[in-house]
Amino acid sequence: MRLSRLVSALTAIVAIALGAAALDLPTKNLNGTKYYYYKVKQKETVYGISKKLGLTREEIISHNPAADDGVKKGMILYFPYDLYCEDIAVMEDEVIIATPADTMSSVVIGVMADSVPAERPSIAVMLPFGLDNANPTRENRLALDFYKGFLLAADTLAARSGMLDIYAIDVDVDSAQLSEVMKYETLTKASVIVAPNNQKIYSMLAGLALANGNYVLNNFIVADSLYQINPQVLQANIPHLDMYRLAADAFEAEYADFTPLVLRSKTGRNEKEPFVSYLIDRCRARGIEPVVMEYESNLVSADVERLDVSAGRKYVVVPSSGTLAEFNKFAYVIKALRDRLIAASGVDDSGSELPGARVEVFGYPDWTAFRGDALDLLHKLDAMVYSRFFDNFNSFESRSLNEAFRRCYGTPVIESIPSQAFLGYDTGCFLIRNLTANGDVFDPLSPRSYTGVQSTFDFDKSGAGYSNSALYIIKYNADGTVSARVI
Description:
Membrane-bound Lytic Murein Transglycosylase D, Chain A, Rossmann fold, alpha/beta, seven-stranded mixed beta sheet, eleven-stranded mixed beta sheet
């Protein structure tokens, strides 16, 4: 039996009492009472602190009334230790593995996982955990990371009132076992089902949700349109056409007086051509004709020498590929051109800056995975990209979540783009917050927006169902910092 291994691997939380959670803060005794305390940093706000601590604004103010008028650097916020100390039970005695058939083992984690408690909200996470695999695949390990992050979200939000069941269902099983799983009351009664990256299973779950009136959240299949015809489906990835529209809106706002310089490789992939063509049409509709430059295996200095770089000219480079290999074929030449133009701008005899030519770069979600020299080049090029997700690895939130993950599970987050542990955490926070805000009933539009550590959920009614409308615009600044905003 694999129960002990599974409980150890997941620190399985089955029925989560949302009653109190430990704050990762220092403590002190005041007049015989123990408190957690937090010292406000420069430019912090009550809202920002609530995000860091996993508390609501109202909770912060209830214990610190002076914060209702705002906070300032050095202010100390106190939280009663007894109210927020660790109070989550890992109910190993009640964790069972449901076995609807003798051949089926390690499929469902839960308290009577083929049925659910009456009138209690629940979430079913269906992923390929590979619990019966002697040698788990990377997909299996990433699925476990997602679920671990999901459980950390439940831990973070445990100060909220109510009771919530979370079930983890392994879909890395044979077809006969999967057919049995699909009969579970767990799925028909779950408020929300988190679907796997498997089109067949996802479609089956969407059909079940349509029949039962619950919801299916699609986090993993990007190019899917079931949300357009099924009112119970939530597409967590912004659809391509909406993404193109918002990315082009940001492009026009940032580079209103720039001439687009489109780079196409005659021998490269050019896989971003659909977006480039859309962007060119948008530019022409505004009366701007892009400069299109084609090059052989690599862009060379001679290719850019024909550009008009007279005073005041501005170019924004738009490549037709987002791959690292193609980026390296043009980035160094554009960097040299940019450096030359900056050096030539200078100042006049009065010390006023001369209006030199400028070159910047606009790119793609793929670039968020760049590291080393490529990342350094993004900063030196003042690059701006659009992406469905964003993780500022050096942020307080990111570092805190990484540390909490390591402390809880004894292993680091598996490196992936996007991080599956962070995606699980953000998904858990979004779903649990929504359920508790609506009296244990899930409502995709209320509250409609949640910005997490890596992902933002902002659902709109789209066709019959719902799709995420959030897109990150990320700027790699020349000073080495990274900034992002959601549009």
